[in-house]
Specification:
Number of domains: 2
Strand order of the largest sheet: 2-3-1-4
Order of helices and strands: HHHHHHHHEHEEHE
Oligomer: single chain
Shape: elongated
Radius of gyration: 24 Å
Strand content: 5-15%
Number of helices: 10
Number of strands: 4
Distance between the termini: 18 Å
Helix content: 55-70%
Structural class: alpha+beta
C-alpha cells in the first residue's frame, strides 16, 4: 500500500473519530441539557426541540442542497471530505441518540459539551475536513459576493442563536455562547496551539557570544539582522531565533547571563515550517 493511500486512510479515520466526538457531545451534553448550537447543527436542534425531528437525518437533509450547490465551487478533495464528514456525522448522531447525560448544572454541560465538540471539529479541521453546513454556505458567498468566510459564519450563528433565544429564552443562548467560545479555543489549540512557538529578537553588544551559546545549548539556529541604534547611530547586530515555548526560559537565561543590558522581545509564532520543526515535504506532514 503506497504512502498516498495510507495518508488518505489516516485522514478519513481522523474525520471519523472527530465526528464521533461531535455526535456524542450533541446527544450527551447539548440535547440532554437543552442547549442550542450555531450553524446547521443549531437549526437541527431547534427543529428537534420544537417538532422532535431526528437530528442526524435533519442534518443530512439540510446539507444535501448545500453540497449540490457547492459541487463546482470547492476543491474535489475538500468536497469528498465534506460529503464523508456530513454523512458520518449524521449517522453517528442517530447511533448515539440514546446517550443522555442530563445535569443539574447546565454550565458544566456547556463547558464539557463545548470542549468535546471543539476536540471533534479540531481533529476534522486538522486534516482539511469539514462537516458541511455553514462552512459550505460561507464558501459559496465568498466565491460569488466576496464576503469574508469568517464574517458569514459569525452572522449565521448570531441569527440562529437569535431564533433559539425567541423560542427557548436568553439563558439557553447565554450558556450556548460559553460552549461556543470553548469550541473556538479548542479548535485553535488543535490547529496551532499544540505547536505554538516563540519568536525571539535580541539586541545586544555581545550578540556573537549570545548566538554561539543559543546554538550550542538549545540546538536552534539564529539569524543575524544588521541594524543601527536609533540614538547612538552605531551599527549593531540583531539576533532572531524561533524556539519552542519550553526552550524559551533557557534562551532568556543565556541572554541574562551574557548581557544584563540586552534588549529582548518575545512574540507568539503560531506555525513554523522548516528544519527542526514541521517538515516542508508533503509526504512527511
Amino acid at each position: 500500500m503506497n504512502n498516498k493511500i495510507l495518508k488518505y486512510l489516516k485522514e478519513y479515520l481522523i474525520i471519523t473519530i472527530g465526528c464521533l466526538f461531535y455526535s456524542v457531545s450533541i446527544n450527551y451534553f447539548f440535547i440532554s441539557n437543552h442547549l442550542a448550537e450555531g450553524g446547521v447543527a443549531g437549526i437541527c436542534l431547534i427543529l428537534y426541540y420544537l417538532f422532535k425531528f431526528p437530528v442526524g437525518i435533519t442534518y443530512f437533509v439540510i446539507n444535501i442542497p448545500l453540497l449540490v450547490i457547492g459541487w463546482k465551487l470547492v476543491g474535489k478533495d475538500f468536497l469528498f471530505k465534506t460529503l464523508y464528514g456530513t454523512t458520518c456525522l449524521s449517522i453517528m448522531i442517530d447511533l448515539t441518540q440514546n446517550l443522555k447525560g442530563p445535569s443539574n448544572d447546565t454550565m458544566l454541560g456547556a463547558i464539557y459539551g463545548g470542549l468535546l465538540v471543539g476536540i471533534g471539529l479540531g481533529l476534522i479541521f486538522v486534516v482539511n475536513g469539514s462537516t458541511g453546513g455553514t462552512d459550505v454556505i460561507a464558501r459559496i458567498l465568498n466565491r460569488f459576493f466576496d464576503i469574508p468566510i469568517g464574517k458569514t459564519m459569525f452572522l449565521m450563528d448570531v441569527l440562529i442563536l437569535g431564533v433559539a433565544a425567541i423560542f427557548f429564552g436568553k439563558e439557553v443562548v447565554m450558556y450556548t455562547l460559553i460552549a461556543m467560545l470553548i469550541v473556538s479555543k479548542a479548535i485553535d489549540f488543535f490547529q496551532d496551539g499544540h505547536t505554538k512557538s516563540k519568536g525571539v529578537t535580541i539586541m545586544s553588544a555581545k550578540s556573537e557570544e549570545i548566538k554561539n551559546r543559543i546554538m550550542e545549548e538549545t540546538g536552534r539556529g539564529t539569524t543575524i539582522i544588521k541594524g543601527e541604534g536609533g540614538y547612538t547611530r552605531k551599527d549593531m547586530d540583531l539576533l532572531y531565533c524561533v524556539v519552542s515555548k519550553f526552550e524559551l526560559p533557557k534562551v532568556k537565561m543565556i541572554v541574562k547571563e551574557v548581557d544584563t543590558y540586552a534588549f529582548l522581545t518575545v512574540s507568539d509564532v503560531s506555525e513554523v515550517w522548516g528544519e527542526g520543526f514541521k517538515s516542508l515535504h508533503s509526504n512527511k506532514k
